[in-house]
Amino acid sequence: MTDKDAPIAQKLAAAGERGYDDLIVGPSDPGYAVMLKIFEDEQNGVIIPASTGAFVDLSWGFRVRNQLRNASGSTYGLSPSGSIWGSALSGFEPISGGVIDSMVRSGKFSTAFSVHQPTFDTFSDYYESDGNAQASGISENGMVPYGGTAVVSTTADHGIDGGDNNSNGVIDEESERDTSPPYRYAIPAIQIKLRVQDATAGTLQELSMVHSLQGN
Ligand SMILES: [Ca+2]
Ligand SMILES: [Ca+2]
Ligand SMILES: [Ca+2]
Known about the structure:
Elements: H1 8-13, H2 32-42, H3 60-67, E1 92-93, E2 98-99, H4 101-105, E3 109-110, E4 115-116, E5 189-198, E6 203-212
Antiparallel strand pairs: 1-2, 3-4, 5-6
């Protein structure tokens, strides 16, 4: 057991020892971003994960990143090339420095309109054959507000036109589609947590339920 003020290298060496006083934090815990920052500062970016696999909130990558942002928008030097917050469900792809493409093409993320709505949606194939070029932007977006007018485009629906529109040698692959579900990945299971606080008694109770979605 190490002193709480011991150097981080000493704490790392003692991680998991008998009678240890360490706490495991995951991407949905408030201390996760702070721990990343400490390791970045004191371990030259070397982060040693205790385990992998956890239930997380959708777009947790953004939440972690935002916790590290200061007023100037900096991430306190935490390398944007790090992969620790990039995953299939993080909604953030630090390798390319941008948002996961499906979040944009689903309309769930837009810097131009300050939209970020990380929701899981099985979506519809209708937009791929509707004659509207959703991929061209909001002016040609077939998903118009009620009462609006959709702009029909002759260059719409590239995902089914039989041509290699992006010249990558593959015809009508996923990246040529006008739209996309916000998350292209199956969710194997969901976890719901209920927390009840009794302020008078000073107690906090938590009930956790897990439901498998595999086979659905
Ligand atoms: Ca379309
Ligand atoms: Ca192609
Ligand atoms: Ca095509």
